[in-house]
């Protein structure tokens, strides 16, 4: 893909990355480290042990999902820079633009993605 074609995808990916970084920053307590944020979120004596455990598991799952999504976005931006963006990593065919608009971080064409899943 040419730079002209990838430019809108790059903008979309950069916006997605900024959004994810903001979410992760908020989830982790801003400038506070993860351990301190967890202690603040889950150190209330009025919360039951089960409630604290469930809330902690949910927060860490959200953090992991957002971190994984951020890795995919970063990888897509790297593929743009390398000139391989839009090519299926399995079969090498061009991923349709409609798929990339819906999921700009897509690694595979739909057929290969279905095989992977």
Explained architecture:
This protein is mostly helical and 117 residues long. The chain is 69% helix and 0% strand. It has 5 helices and no strands. The chain is elongated. The mean pLDDT is 83.
**Head-to-tail CA distance between termini:** 26 Å
In DSSP terms, counting alpha (H) and pi (I) runs of 4 or more, how many helices?
A: 5
Gyration radius over CA: 18 Å
String of helices and strands: HHHHH
- The general outline is elongated
Strand pairing plus helix content: what structural class? mainly alpha
Number of strands: 0
How much helix, percentage-wise, in residues?
55-70%
Q: Report the biggest beta sheet as strand number plus sense, adding barrel if it closes.
A: none
Runs with pLDDT <50, length 5+? none
Roughly what is the average pLDDT, rounded to an integer? 83
What proportion of the residues form beta strands (DSSP E)?
under 5%
What structural keywords apply?
single chain, mainly alpha, 117 residues
In short:
This protein has 117 residues and is mainly α. It has five helices and no strands. The longest helix is centred in the middle third of the chain and has 34 residues, at 49-82.
